Amino acid sequence: MNLNITGRHVEVTPAIRDYVTSKLDRVIRHFDNVTSVGVILSVEKLKQKAEVTLHVRGKDIFVESDDTDLYAAIDAMTDKLDRQVQKYKQKQSDHNHETLKHQEPEA
Known about the structure:
Layout: E1 2-8, H1 14-28, E2 34-44, E3 47-56, E4 59-67, H2 70-103
Parallel strand pairs: 1-2
Antiparallel strand pairs: 2-3, 3-4
């Protein structure tokens, strides 16, 4: 997995990098087919914003979150990403079961 963390108008310190990495590890643990992850952390006046694009086979999952605190924005972003990854994984498994159901010979 390729992880790219970018800061717009904010310096990405090692503490922030470790925090984002630990939060994303929790999400990526659910899903094995992640090819790359791009994280953008930005500051606009009083609003801290965190965005992530998760590249998986066949789909890109994009999530953004903003808050007054950067760490709270990262937490909200990973929670949203976790829900979307689980939803995508559920759709994939449901879709695979439907194709197997159609392939069975009828008696």
